[in-house]
Amino acid sequence: MNPIVMALFSLFVASGAIAAEIGGVRLDDKISIDGKELVRNGAGIRTRAIFKVYVASLYIPAKSTDLAGVLAAGSRRVQMNLLRTLSAEQLVDALNDGLKDNNTEAELGAVKSQVDQLASILKTFREVKEKDVVALDYVEGGTRVGLNGDVKGVIPGEAFNRALMKIWLGDHPVQSDLKKAMLGG
């Protein structure tokens, strides 16, 4: 191999700029949210029946293999790169099912207004299309909801974000192999 090409490749690898590709979606190894660097902890494909729905990726400041470590990490992002078009109603239904499966009635009662707020934000999307990106960023005590890089709203509360994270990483996750992949397995 040409020495210049080899040197450039080494520099590229050392910079951590190489991204992973999952389900045809390129995912950055590192991202920055409000000046905080986060690393991709893991990612996988959410399927429903035989359909690939989205690539879910988890970004946190330092790698972790369990929910407690993710929650203790502070800033975090769950990113969903859509592999098919979904209606807002499908998003809201999946949200509600995942929350009910992983949180007690008391936990859900404590964050009901925030869940309603997220549902309202998702309904403004009308639908998300293949290749759209939904980002749920937890920063400074609130969950920032983004669509294709545009902030659509911020929902306050650590308890709400904890309940939300359990959808993918709780005891009864939306998909067991997706949980394992997001936790770096």
Describe the structure.
The chain is α+β, with helices and mostly antiparallel strands and 185 residues long. It has one domain: Chalcone isomerase, CATH 3.50.70.10. The protein has 7 helices and 11 strands. The strands form 3 sheets. A 7-stranded antiparallel sheet has the order 3-4-5-6-9-10-11. A two-stranded antiparallel sheet has the order 1-2. Strand 10 and strand 11 form a beta hairpin. Helix 3 runs antiparallel to helix 5 and helix 3 (88-102) packs across helix 6 (158-169). The chain is globular, with a radius of gyration of 17 Å.
Topology (elements, then pairings):
Elements: H1 3-14, E1 20-22, E2 25-27, E3 30-33, E4 36-48, E5 51-60, H2 67-72, E6 76-82, E7 86-87, H3 88-102, H4 105-110, H5 112-124, E8 127-128, E9 133-139, E10 142-147, E11 150-156, H6 158-169, H7 176-182
Antiparallel strand pairs: 1-2, 3-4, 4-5, 5-6, 6-9, 7-8, 9-10, 10-11
Helix pairs in contact: 3-5, 3-6
